[in-house]
Sequence to fold (437 residues):
Amino acid sequence: MSGARRTAVEALIHQEKAGYSNLVLDGRLRRSGLTGRDKAFCTAIFYTVLEHQITLDWQLRQCLNRPVARLDPPVRAVLRAGLAQIVYMQVPPAAAVNESVTLVRQLGCSSAAGLVNAVLRRAPSQDPAGAKFPSRAARLSVQYSVAEPIVRLYLAGYPTRTEDLLRSFAAPCRETALRVNTLRTTPEQLAGRLAAEGTPCRPGPLPGSLLAVFDGSPAQSAAFAEGLFHVQGLSSQLAALSLDARPGQKVLDLCAAPGGKSLLLAQQMGDSGTLYSRDASEGRVSLLRQALERCGVQCADTACADAAIWQPELARADRVLCDVPCSGLGILRKKPDLRYKALADLPALCVLQAKILDTAARYVKRGGRLVYSTCTLNPQENEYQIEQFLSGEEGARFRLVDPFCRPARRADGPFGMTIFPDETGFDGFFIATLERL
Fold:
């Protein structure tokens, strides 16, 4: 599997420079010619490093006389990949060390071969659990491989839940949450179809949901190609279900791409009425249209539009969903890049969220419903936005109503419901359901 290791390391080097992790890896895999087990092994190395990078770097630092950041990029990537194999992937240490030494030579860094050999023999024994740190935030950052500013944000917002929250991000989610396309099939029929394809699944906790275990990408399933389901996290499903869209209504999805919520709303509507699906990115609108077409949705009107800017044709809507752009701090398990996210853009992001919410509220007719949701765990983007909105002139015309359902791991408050990630497929999310008076 030497080719798999080299491809993983090359992808890690590229990832440090720029780019989304999934796109970087996919590009390398396409050019590598790897298949089967080698491809899976390469993918496992790449994502294991991304998910544990802070912890790996701390272990490596205990065995180096310089910061990890000052190593040559190929040497740094080889050390991270080799250590990840030993600590997290149950690769025999001798094999991981020997392959890493060979690989660093192949990458033109022969002078570092001795360093790689020595460090990888010592680093696995470095245990952060028994080490001293300057603060609780620093310890949790290293132990769970989440950037310290994010840990401090969690500690400020959820002081009694922070460690459980970080632990949940580290736990693998073996099942994939699916949304059944009820325009074409039923949960029972789809479960049978997937079982015939060799994909075990079981009913999910929300109506119309399934939890499945795929061997590979769900998009490779024939049932997916036929538009019988789409992949959508349970918290995301719950946000759309909370809108209570009905047949014949005028429904808006203002930040719709890549399309999961629009698909669910169209199904709730029985593909009747009009679903206005909007997104600010033309490229993402293209993905949205592809998803709607694959699932046979006819009632959707799609267009590229900024959700913060008033669009007269959307006025007097029965239902409005604004799943606003956010910091994504509730989905670190699914998007390991976000573990190291800089928080400098949070103030500007909060301003944008407030503009979208204010604009969305103006579309809702009397008796209509508005859902504000995020996939983050940050009170400034969540409860505070609803509190500020309800205290304003437009917000005075709304009242908070009960959510569609309440997951077990949640916190109910006067301004909405915060969902904490769990092992069943719920992600960290915030949902506020509002009704116009």
The mean pLDDT is 94. The chain is about 45% helix and 15% strand. The CA atoms of residues 87 and 404 lie 42 Å apart. Residues 346-363 form the longest helix (18 residues).
